[in-house]
Every structure is written in structure tokens, then in C-alpha cells.
Amino acid sequence: MQGLFSKVLIANRGEIACRVIRTCRRLGIATVAVYSEADATAQHVRLADEAWPIGGSRPADSYLRGDVILDVAKKSGAQAIHPGYGFLSENADFADAVEAAGLVFIGPAAASMRKMGSKAGAKILMQEHKVPVVPGYTGEDQDPALLAREAERIGFPLMIKAAHGGGGKGMRIVRSSGEFAANLESCQREARNAFGRDRVLLERYVEKPRHIEFQVFGDRHGNIVHLNERECSAQRRYQKVLEEAPSPFVSTELRARMGEAAVAAARAIDYSNAGTVEFIVGQGGDFYFMEINTRLQVEHPVTELTLNLDLVELQLRVAAGEALPASLVRNKSVPADGHAIELRLYAEDPAQNFLPGSGKLTTLRLPEPSRHVRIDGGVVEGDVVSIFYDPMIAKLIVWDTTREAALQRMREALAATEIVGPKSNVEFLERLVRHPAVTGASIDTGYLDRHLDEFLPAAAEAPAHLLAAAACAVLLDQESAAPALAATGSDPYSPWASADGWRLGHPGKRVVALLHAGERLELAAHGSAGDYSLDWKGGHAQVRNARLDGGWLSAEIDGTVRRLRAAVDGGHVLLHDGNARHSFERAAAFAYSASKSGGGDRVVAPMPGRIVLTRVNAGDSVSEGQELAIMEAMKMELTLRAPRAGVIAAVQVQPGEFVEADAVLIRLEQN
């Protein structure tokens, strides 16, 4: 095919679909989006030149339906299909079907994908080509007894991995033979649900490893290059949390050796287009092949920012038959320009074991894009984070000349971020980028899981000056609304249109009610226009010259002038002091609290999802914390446990059943 494509279909959704659309638009390529019922008003649908429905909300009913997607490609006149990442991106059968239909698959050849689609097969292939691999078992015989014997041979600790997995799904660490059988069953079940195949492999677990991957690129003219490394050692349960390029751990000599191994691995399978060779690296610099991801990676922006490249454009050009640029082929190593860091903003609750969330983004404020800040997102304010897909809100990527400067850029970017609606991980990320294990570049892949409490903020009483600042923000917000009230036709000279605190029988007094860390706080305020006297239980503050302008609050509080980032609306106040964020909910000035009772007699669904299995029946005696059921939600397995010891009165769900949030699943007999 001569020249670039005129029209490309993007067989994906969300952030990556929007990302591909941006590059296509810059190159003058028309785009075709596909969407499920849940995504009818999604951003990728709005951004594409045209969009076609492909089925129900569940991925199996839409984004995994290759035949329907191919039919849309033909009807729309698309010449090529970009699969993004996830879904069908590493499905060799789909790649073959695309080619058979006379279209171009923007990715590697199906033959290369088949060699890498199985972790077991990839490991054997790398051994044959002298690429270092971790000792383990990759055989097809999946008899549990044989796997248990192989585990004893390899030695503990070891890791069980889904052979056809990815994205951190279907992985378990086992530290003793007694834990092996239960972990094997759980891993196989998760793999079967996520990938349709339950084959696993075993490998020795390297203690305190680092995760370092190399971006590779090949064309159809025999050229294969690497585009330097990315470090992704900050992980939680094998999910990458922070990615950066270049790695602060990799020396020039180690980069050369690992880069040569990455290119050799790609050349062994005649690789074309974008791919990533992932290595596990010991503390002494010893490295072992993990896998090759035959697609564009989520973290590709850090490579783009440090090399001033557009990898999606390279993908399109290579797929269209062009050779890689001579400047890349000629140089064995491309020098990095500065340092880039990426974080992923998720709708999840770190305080509840990172339980994925869903719901409407009533507020979504992100930093302004610039030379130093890049936002890759798939939702905007007012959109809904769906229960059916990955709960990513956006990726924050920053660049600067040094790692230290890039970390500071990221702190500033996070401080300018506000998310209201589903709970998010933004506060967790803020603590992450200030932690010594990150700033000192010593973090390994298991650090977060071993020391998670260091990254989760403990509930604490709000300092007096912050409580006073939050009250000022509310008072100033109320006063700014007064002219709008007058504009509606009310008498502007009436005391009811004034926000100076006048009340019949209570001259100059207003009550500000806030909720912080679950506690209701009431402040009595006298004054107006930025000058206030504040009193609350156990505290007092005198405020002068408070101003709320352009997202900043400045005020003299008890003789000290302070400047804080501030965002205030009808329901919330968010303050940021440069080190941490402090959130307050606005409450009615006069309210009562209902008492809670009865919660210990039932187990409810924490979010919408599907019941995988139940482990108890009516009449069974259970102990507190005992596993009662497992449900699948937001691509994760959630274990539901007994809230107390007792006897099961009723099990109200069946395996396979889809349940809504807060649905009662299991009841215990009342004490």
C-alpha cells in the first residue's frame, strides 16, 4: 500500500482510543470508533470522525467480538485496524482475520504473536536463543500433582502465572508448599475468567526485583531497534503504579547489555511494529526475560517524551510498509532527552484495598497541558466511570530535564487535580511521589505491598489553620453568590440578599458545617468580606483579608499569611498546602445523624459485579472473617467474608448471577 492510510478503525475504547485518534487527526487520517451500549456517549465516540455500535456493555458482547468489528471496518471503508492495548490487541486469530479480510492489522504479524502469546512458549524460545530466563516450569501438562512436584523442584518462593495472561491478572506468589494448592486453584479460575484459558506456568520468585522493560520496534524491511528502557518497579499486586524513563537504576553498560538482549529477543520472532521486552532485574544487575508484550504499552508516553517521538505515528507508518527512520536504525542507542514520569489516575479506594469504583465524575479538574505536563484521558467532567471496564480516569505524564525536577512537576500536577464522584487514588499517588523509596530510586516491585501503610493517609484531625481556611472558602463562596441572587429579581437591598452574616436576632453570625474524616465540625463565624472571627469546639481563629481567586485562597490566619490551592463548590472544599490535600464536605448547618444498626447480620455486594462462587450454605456455622463468597467486579476477584461469627440464615445468590451494589448476598441468623 502506497502512502499512509486514509481511514483507520480503532478497535478499542477510552484513553487509548482517544490517544490514537489524536495522532490520526494530526496526520490527516479519518478515524472510525466502535462502541458498546455502555459507551454510547463516551469521549472516543465523540472524538472520532464516525462511530458504530458493536453490542452489549460486557467486553465479551462488544469489544471482544472480532467478527462484528471486522464487519464495521468493511462497511465503513477503513483500510486498517489499530487494536490499542488490551481486548483484541494480542489476539493472533483476530490479526489473521484482519489480514484475510484484505485489511492491515496495525501490530506485529500473527505468527510473531503466537510465539509470544503464551508465556510458556516465549520462555522456551528465549532459552533457545540464549536470553537469560528465570528457572521454572512451562510444560503443557497441567496435572495439579505434577505442578505441585515441579513447585518443590523449583523451590519456594515461586510464582504461579497465567500462561496467556497480562495486566497483572492470574498471578500468585507462593511461599510454602502448604499454600500451593489453594493459590493454584485461584489463579486458574481467574485466568479462565479473564482470558478463557487456565494454563499456568511456574517460576522462581526473585526477591526484591526491579521491573525494567525495553521498547522495541521493527519494520517489514528487517530493521529492529530498541528505544531505551522504562522502569516500572513501583507496583501493587503486579499492577504498575509509576513508570519512568530512563531508569535511575540502569547504568550505561547495563543498558547496552539489556538493549542487545531485547533486540535479540525481538529478532528471534521476526518482530515488526511496536513491542515491549520486559525483564526482571536483581539487585546486583542480573536480569531475566519475563515476556514480550506484542502491542503498544500503557506507559509508552514516557518513551515518547524522552525521545521526542510519536510511537503511534511510527506504528501507522510501519504498518503502511515504510521503513523505520534512518536515524533510529543507524544508532545503536538513542540518547534520552531529560526524564519523564507517568502516573495513572484510577477510580478506586485505596483505604478499601483499592476497591475499584464507578459513577459520575461530578468534578474532574486536571492540570493544564504544557511542555512539561501531558494528559492522556478518556473521560471528561460529567462522564461516568463504567463498571464494565478498567476504571482509569486519566494518565498524568510529566517531563523535565532531570529526575528531581520531573518529580516536582508531578507533585504540582497532582496538586492541581481534583476528582469528585467515585473515590480516586490521587491522595495515594501524592504520598507515593514524596516517599523516600521513590525519591531515592530504591523501590522494588514488592515494596508497595510490603509497606502499603506508609502510602495510605491515616485519618487525622484537621489542623486549626486548615479548618479555618476551609470555613473561609465556604464563607467567601456564599458571599460571591449574593450578587447572583439579586440578579434573579430579589431586592438587592434586602438583608435576605446579603451574605454579610446578618440574621434576625443573631447579628453577624453564620454557621459553617463541614465533614472531615467522618467527623462533623461546626464553626460559628462573625464578619464578612474576608474578615472573620471563627469559633468551634476547642478552637478559635481570627482571619483577615481572605481572598478566593483563580483557584487559590490567601488569608491572614492568626497573624500568619497563608496561600493554599482551593476549590469549593456546593458540596465540597478541597485545600492543598503544597505537601498534601485536605478534603472537606459541606453539610447543612443544622442536621441530625441516624444511628447505624444491623450491619453485622448480612453480607452485601460492595459494588456491581458477578458472583463467582459461594462457599457456604444455610445452616453452616462460620467464624468472623471466614471466606463466604467470591465475586468478580471491575476485572478483579473480591473475597467476601463473614462480619462476625454465627450461623448462615440464607444464601441469596447463585454463582454466575450479576448483582447490584449493596445487594444483600448472605444473611446470618440474628444473635
From TrEMBL:
ATP-binding recorded as keyword: yes
Organism (species): Tahibacter harae
Domain ATP-grasp: 123-320
UniProt superkingdom: Bacteria
Domain Biotin carboxylation: 4-453
Name assigned to this protein: Acetyl/propionyl/methylcrotonyl-CoA carboxylase subunit alpha
PROSITE patterns in the cross-refs: ATP_GRASP, BC, BIOTIN, BIOTINYL_LIPOYL, CPSASE_1, CPSASE_2
SUPFAM superfamilies: Glutathione synthetase ATP-binding domain-like (SSF56059), PreATP-grasp domain (SSF52440), Rudiment single hybrid motif (SSF51246), Single hybrid motif (SSF51230)
Lipoyl-binding domain sequence ranges: 594-669
InterPro entries to which the protein is assigned, alphabetical: ATP-grasp, ATP_grasp_subdomain_1, BC-like_N, Biotin_BS, Biotin_carboxylase_complex, Biotin_carboxylation_dom, Biotin_COase_C, Biotin_lipoyl
UniProt cofactor(s): biotin
Origin organism lineage: Bacteria, Pseudomonadati, Pseudomonadota, Gammaproteobacteria, Lysobacterales
Keyword entries, A-Z: ATP-binding, Biotin, Ligase, Nucleotide-binding
